[in-house]
Amino acid sequence: MSAMNAGSFYATVGLWVAGAIVLAIAAMYFLRPRTRAHYPGGPRRYLLAITIQIIGLLAPIPLVLMLLLASPMAQELQVIAAVLVGMAVVFGLRFAPITGPLLRDLHKARVDAMVERLGPRTQK
User: Who contacts 49 (Cβ-Cβ below 8 Å, separation ≥6)?
Assistant: First the structure.
């Protein structure tokens, strides 16, 4: 019989989640220079905003999946529920007094970068 220590399981899951968070933060920071340039407050504040957003989205997913391990729900529905919880956390953080301005500025910077990339609209 094979037995697994719960501590090593949680450590493994934690390391995978931490790696995914670091990879996502690095990708968002380095692959979106226009958004970073449009973000008010400079690159450090931009890094803080994307860190809050990514941790808010990714951290609850494995927690919810672990809580739903013994549930009779289908695995696909468990994953959907976990992602929805992560999105709800980000939505809640957007309206929190401390993190809200950071995430709203992040959204505005993304919109400004997209408008700049697409160029001005001309009417015919």
Answer: 39, 102, 103, 105, 106
Q: How many CB atoms lie within 10 A of CB 28?
A: 19
pLDDT (tens digit, 9 = 90+) per residue, 56-78? 999 999 999 888 888 888 889 99
Asked if 61 and 47 count as a contact pair (C-beta separation under 8 A), the reply is no
Residue 43: Cβ within 10 Å count? 12
- In Å, how far are 23, 60, 99, 100, 123 from 91, measured between CA atoms? 22, 13, 11, 9, 35
pTM of the model: 0.82
